[in-house]
Amino acid sequence: TKVEEALHLVGLEKLADRYPNQLSGGEQQRVALARALIKEPEVLLLDEPLSNLDAKLREQMRFELKELQRRSGIPILYVTHDQAEALAMSDRLAVISSGRIVQVGSPTDIYKQPADGFVGDFIGIMNFLACRVVGRSGGTATVEFLGDCRLTVTDCASPADEYTLAVRPEDIELSRAGLIPCRVEVRNYLGNLIDYKVSAGGKTLRVQTANTQPFEEGDEIALTIHRAMLFTLASG
């Protein structure tokens, strides 16, 4: 029957005789999906489907939803305000601001090549530093920031009077011998990585590194920026 097929798709065929109060939160979510799948929709719309689940269950359901989509072959239009969820769940991602689509692309493209500062800041964490362009050559720009620090980056498509340098936390390296002096202000141990707030040149930056060489709060060290993006100030 269609009911049996739908329960099989969501992996609940062995729980068909249970009552709702005998199901876990994740199992109840899968029942809701099965009810939608029975109608054999051309497209399945899921609007914040995991928002009421705890963190561990939400992470588990991400994998289950992707497997469900592959088994059923039904395209899913997935709406979420959770940026990590958007990156994890999508094959193609659209970022919407004020009712307008500002960028469409693969999760990798959206994260690594955001169209502007808004997209970069909305998807993931982004540090923004005021800068000025001091030279251009062959599609690259040399920028000056935090006083007299310089970096060569891919140039903006549109020239402007003012620019901002955008840097992901994982693109900054902390060491005892980096290029830019900094101080560790806050250190959060997250298991597989360490999330820092460091101060440099009067600015506060987020830095995320592996936990192989942890620094302590108050350490006077240095940072090196390995990759950055250049945006016009209006787009940052």
Structure description:
The chain has 236 residues and is of the alpha+beta class. The protein folds into two domains: 2-91, Rossmann fold, CATH 3.40.50.300; 127-235, OB fold (Dihydrolipoamide Acetyltransferase, E2P). It has six helices and 14 strands. Strand 3 (93-97) and strand 4 form a beta hairpin. Helix 1 (2-9) crosses helix 2. The longest helix has 18 residues, at 55-72.
Radius of gyration, CA atoms, in whole angstroms: 23 Å
What number of structural domains do the residues give? 2
Number of helices: 6
* Percent strand: 35-45%
CATH superfamily of the largest domain: Nucleic acid-binding proteins
| SSE order, one letter for each helix or strand | HHEHEHEEHHEEEEEEEEEE
Task: Explain briefly what this protein structure is.
This protein has about 240 residues and is of the alpha+beta class. It has six helices and 14 strands. Helix 1 crosses helix 2 (about 25-40).
Topology overview:
Blueprint: H1 2-9, H2 25-38, E1 44-47, H3 55-72, E2 76-79, H4 83-89, E3 93-97, E4 100-105, H5 107-112, H6 117-122, E5 127-137, E6 140-145, E7 149-154, E8 163-167, E9 172-175, E10 180-189, E11 193-200, E12 203-210, E13 220-225, E14 229-232
Parallel strand pairs: 1-2
Antiparallel strand pairs: 3-4, 5-6, 5-8, 6-7, 8-14, 9-13, 10-11, 10-13, 11-12
Helix pairs in contact: 1-2
